[in-house]
Amino acid sequence: MPDTRSFRLGVAGPVGTGKSSLIATVCRELSAELRLGVITNDIYTDEDARLLKAAGVLDPARIRAVETGACPHTAIRDDVTPNLIAVEDLERDFAPLDVVLVESGGDNLTATFSPALVDAQIFVLDVAGGGDVARKGGPGIARADLLIVNKTDLAPYVEVDVEQMVKDAETARDGKPVIALSRKDPASIARLTDWVRSMRYAVHAGHHTPVDPGPMAPHSHTGEDGEVIVHTH
Ligand SMILES: Nc1nc2c(ncn2[C@@H]2O[C@H](COP(=O)(O)OP(=O)(O)OP(=O)(O)O)[C@@H](O)[C@H]2O)c(=O)[nH]1
Ligand SMILES: [Mg+2]
């Protein structure tokens, strides 16, 4: 891999599961050690980029928003060009960068990154979405390079058995890694940062081939006027 090319790491998952928070955590923990950049994808706003800039974990110039104006699948999977340009611009402006994190717009269980955009991808669930979500499967849960079960500190309040949820996820993933994460649990954060380091190493050493988690099932979106649009990609 040429020196100017970073390790591109995608972070996807349903709305509000903690993608931006996870990226902020990675920046806080690794920015002294690795040269980082962040691209966020929001549908209508640059809210995620603003949140990350306000977190004060990375030079704000290294955080850029792509406003997709379309459903997240389109931007991270079907037509990745605007994202690819954003990543390459960031890599050029701050060369060399070690890792560029790309946050997908929050969606349902089906949005995953094209391997043309990222080298590896994390799919984020949270306990508040319910203990049975991991069993529901889908391409991100089953085949992302890493599955996060986030906000484990909330488990007692939502009566979710984290251990069982992780077991269910592991069953769905055929041995691929699952990390139970909470920003209040330093040991879990260390597991996450260790995974980022080792995946970056594997990508650079040519030991990791980006995998397409697979096509999505037909799904629906509710438009601004409340109209439900069902489509496939
Ligand atoms: N208790 C708890 N709350 C968390 C944790 N991580 C994130 N949150 C909260 O979850 C909410 C959503 O977090 P975000 O990081 O904005 O989630 P997101 O997936 O980026 O959301 P979208 O980009 O809107 O899809 C915020 O209120 C966070 O403070 C955690 O580990 N524990
Ligand atoms: Mg976000």
Automatic annotation (TrEMBL):
Keywords: Chaperone, Cytoplasm, GTP-binding, Nickel insertion, Nucleotide-binding
Compartments, record wording: Cytoplasm
GO biological process: urea catabolic process
InterPro entries in the cross-refs: CobW/HypB/UreG_nucleotide-bd (IPR003495), P-loop_NTPase (IPR027417), UreG (IPR004400)
Chief place of localization: cytoplasm
Domain of life: Bacteria
Function: Facilitates the functional incorporation of the urease nickel metallocenter. This process requires GTP hydrolysis, probably effectuated by UreG.
Protein name in UniProt: Urease accessory protein UreG
Organism: Kribbella jejuensis
Gene field: ureG
